[in-house]
Structures are given as structure tokens and as C-alpha cells.
Amino acid sequence: MRRAGVIGGGAWGTALAQVCARAGLETVLWAREREVVDGVNDRHQNELFLPGVELDHGVRASSDFVDLARSELILAVAPAQHLRSALEAFAPNAFEGLPIVLCAKGVEQGSLKLMTEVLAETVPQAAPAVLSGPSFAGEVARGLPTAVTLACPDEALGRTIAEAIATPTFRPYLATDMIGAEAGGAVKNVLAIACGIVEGRGMGRSAHAALITRGFAEMTRLAVALGARAETLAGLCGLGDLVLTCSSPQSRNMSVGLALGRGETLQGALSGKLSVAEGVASAPAVRQLARSLGIDTPICEAVAAILAGEADVDAAIAGLLARPLRDEQG
User: Binding site for substrate, residues?
Assistant: First the structure.
């Protein structure tokens, strides 16, 4: 592979374009925003979404999908709720068997579909893969050490992709379980909001650790019900991503939870933020999906209720603490 295209000019898309360029790939970053395209091409900066990071001169930006037509690898990094429209627009430029790596984390509202299902409906000729794991965009873009899961059902193709994008500080670990990789990435964003609320309410480190652990149990139950393997969730794309996202205000989702825990409204928590907090959009979809599968996800339920204005923070916390005692492995 010599040429890569990245769909999505936000912080994570820009960071992954940086990874591809550092790996020696000719890289085109597709962005909707004119200021992003101009900033990348003229100043090697994405001041709008990733300020202060000098981009590799090998990264070129465009707002025309035709410029991605020669790509031998596509990384789809548009936000989960906008991925369908982005892929539909790109689809005429995709050749049969084009590897498309899904890097958005979420469940589509309305359809309740994972991103691999969205890809199958919009670019059916593509060869799918999923990239997920503990990774902050700014750290990845600056070249700090990062390890992620690259899940691809075609093991040979997965290895080819991994070798194409790997650098000394960006290490993809191979897997074949795309559902597990997707479910972990989607649910951890919702749980990160819950952890932020706990932190913002000053409930202590013990409560924070308990929430991560019980949240991991919810994530695993839901993923297995969708067809994932439990061991996938114990890796980078599940537990690893959960620990990172639930442990730092640098996480967009946790920062929203922090604001809610401190008494701000959801509108106030989101105001002034250009980057998307995927958990806000995914929470109602995760709740609906879990209910449709008959899976108990009380923490995700509580987050969805708070975001929808169905319960205030204190009532949601009281409800969780009043749940009947149960076996830990039940």
C-alpha cells in the first residue's frame, strides 16, 4: 500500500492522517471545512480541531472525494452519526475490495446499527476493518506511544493494513472480531460520561473504580449479545479504551460528564465544543439496543436518562445505588 485516504478532518482524523504520513504513505485528508483544508495545505496545521500540532508535510487535504479515488486504503473517521452520509458521498470512488478501516465509535441513532453495518449498506464493495483502542488524538499526532486494536475478518488483509500504518510509536494489534472492537468503542463513550459525573460530584476514587468495573461488565454483556467474543473486550479496544476514556478530562465524553456532575446543563456542557462527544449521541441508541436484546445495562440506562432530561443526576445515582444486590459474575 502506498496511498491512504482519511475521511474526516476532526482531531482524530487529522491524527490518523499524521500516522499514515509518518508510515510513508501518500496521504489525503478529506475535510468538510474549508478552513481545515486551507490550514493543512498552507500551514501544515489544523488550527480548528487540533491546534498546536505541526503536521507532516506529506499530509494533503481536500474537500473533494475524487481526490481519494486513487487511495489503496481508506480510514473512515467521520463522527458515527454522520458516517453514513460521508460514506454514501464517497462510495462512487471506491473500487471492489477497497479496504475501509472504520475509526468512528458509536451506534447509529434510529437504525441502532454498528458502523460495519453502515459500511455494508453504503459501500458494499469494500473490505471492512475496525480500528479502536486507547488513543487521544493529540498524543497520537505528536508521536507519543500508542497501541490499538485493528480488527479485520480477513487476517491477511489485516496484517497488510497493520504493516502499512504501523510506526515505531503507533502499534496496531491484530484481531478478527470486528463486533467486539466496535461495541467496546461505542459503549465506553457512554460510560465515560458516567465516570465524569461521578468525578464532578466528588464521589471519590472508590466509586470511580467501581463504575469502571461494573461498566466493563455491561459493555461485555452487550457485546457478547451482539455476537462478539468476550476476550476481545478484555483487550485494547475494550478495557484499554475504557480505562483511558474514563480517567482523564482530556476525554471529550468525560468532560461532558464532569460538567453535568458539577451541576451544568447538557447545553452548557456542550457549548463551545467543536469536537463531537460521541457518547451523547450514542447513549440513547445504546439504551435502545440493549433493551431490544434484553441486556441489563443500568449505568448506560442512567446516562441516557440524564441526557434525555428524564432524571436528574442525583436521582439517577440514587437509583443505581438502590439496585438489589447480586452475584458479581451474574
Answer: 105, 252-253
Residue 269 falls within a domain, yes or no?
A: yes
**pLDDT (tens digit, 9 = 90+) per residue, 156-193?**
999 999 999 999 999 999 999 999 999 999 999 999 99
Q: Is residue 330 very low, low, confident or very high in pLDDT (cuts 50, 70, 90)? A: low
Among 84, 188, 221, 287, the one annotated catalytic: 188
DSSP state of 247: S
Which residues 6+ apart lie within 8 Å of 254 measured at CB? 192, 193, 195, 196, 199, 245, 246, 247, 248
Nearest to 244 by CA among 276, 212, 291: 212
Q: Which residues constitute the domain of residue 269?
A: 179-322
Closest CA to 285 of 156, 114, 131, 122: 114
Residue 276, pLDDT above cutoff 80: no
Reported pTM: 0.94
Rounded distance between C-alpha atoms, residue 265 and residue 271, angstroms: 10
To the query of whether residue 188 is one of the catalytic residues in this protein, the response is yes
Please say which residue of 112, 141, 176 terminates a domain: 176
Tell me: do 26 and 155 sit in the same domain: yes
pLDDT over 80 at 274, yes or no? no
Q: Binding site: what residues are annotated?
A: 8-13, 32, 105, 133, 135, 137, 188, 241, 251-253, 276, 278
Average pLDDT, integer, range 288-301: 96
Are both 260 and 116 inside the same structural domain?
no
d(CA 308, CA 318): 17
